[in-house]
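Problem 3 from the worked examples.
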Amino acid sequence: MCGRAIYQELCVYEKVINMTKVIWFNSDTFLHEDYQRLGIQFSLASPVRDGCVNMCHQWVLCRDFLADAVRAQVTGKKIELYGFCFDPEHNPAIDLSNTRVLVAMDKNPDQLKKYVHSGLRLIRYFERYIRVRKTTLEEVDPAKSGRSAVFLFTGSYVWIRSPFMLSLYTYLIRLGAHDIKFNSSAELKKALTGLAKTKLDSDTAFAKESEDLFKILRLRTRVVGRGSKVHPLYKKAVPIKRFHHNSG
């Protein structure tokens, strides 16, 4: 398949007729998070039941909280860090058979729509690269969410079973804000290298590691684990702050 055809395939957006409904997680807890220039927020979601998913925890800007939540569910132990809390006995259970990520912004719904579609292209490129089921994207009704627009990404379990892969998945979503155009690995690497030179924020700074990223994904069993089991790092007995800052 030629480069242009691949790019067009990655851009395909399925119109969802039966929109998934979301049961929102209501929390006004203040989180101590680093400044995020784009203001894109995330939350993990539960398995679908009767056409609905549960939002499993409050909205977060810091993507590391997502892995913290998965760790809490995997270990069965409540975690509290920088104002964020996930209690397996009270929070809705996260879907570990798929990767379900809700994405939102307080304002600018049209801008978010552009971001998530661009992010979807990046995710699908890497899914093609590592040969896993492609992610789907749908816009959900934001009513009662407190946000102007909300989208639901649903992908392979491969992304959520490892802290590194979950961090990469949400990083690619946020990287969509830069609307990267590419038709091949070489063009993508070149675009990411150029983006890194802009030094706009931490996301663009991470882009300079693109060559290492491709190398890591070629050896993905080391960061994903084997089969459908969660990565041992989720269960490793390390302090939550150390896990939060070093696992993704």
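Problem 4, a separate protein:
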Amino acid sequence: MCAGGVCDRYIPLPGVDHLSDPSPHSAWSHRWNDCERDALFVGCINSVTSLYASIPIFAILGFKATSNYNSCVNSNILDLTNAFDIQDQNITIENYDLWLKTLNASDPEKLSGLNLKPCVLQTFLDQIFNSYVGSVPLLVIAFFELVGIVVFYGMDRFCDDIEMMTGRRPNLFWRVCWRGVSPLLLLVVLVAYIIVQVQEHPTYPAWNPAYVNFPEMEEKPYSDWVFAICVLLSSVPVISIPIVAAYRLMQRQTRSHNSEHLPNPYNNPTFTPDNQT
């Protein structure tokens, strides 16, 4: 079979019944393959690959952010130099914040009238994604994965599968963690996070020349539409979990309801035993 220019060849494995066990045809490995070894190997490869890929990505992002920040600060320095008749090279990027504090204390009205650009390294959208995309969805997904395995699939079946693939059952430590410790910790962290978010309206650092502690960033609450986006970013990745669960429950109830009304194939009132004829 060829796909994308890569051809798969059928390789018979010794000692395997290829007619009754089709798994080697697709996976090229025995059904009792050591999945623990493979998981560790794949995890190490993924970690190294992620680190290798993150270096150039974040280096480029950091360089771009620093370059934009320096350009913004230099533009503000030029405005301050012209407005307050300050000699060139007196205000630099290093002492820019100190000059802002001094000028804001001496002539705040003139400084606020310059409409200086807000110069920050982290953008508004970056803060939203960093705060709401990865935290809550990962907690919810991990919690329901554990619940699905322990409650619905069954811990004994799960341990049997691991024993079949690795040759040994998970020890007591892993079973205790999967059955109670890990779900409980995830649930506590999730509930605590939700309580904190409900009690405190989310805020973001804003550039406000009229702020008392200017040029420090002022913490301002998100607008209602931004808060709605934050809720969507947290709920959309996990909304499929309750939807699929409700769909499966409806399917099960429908099957049980239909099975009650199906005729019994062994119930034949016209059948008469031979000894009664």
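Solution to problem 4. The chain has a mean pLDDT of 77. The first helix runs from residue 23 to 27.
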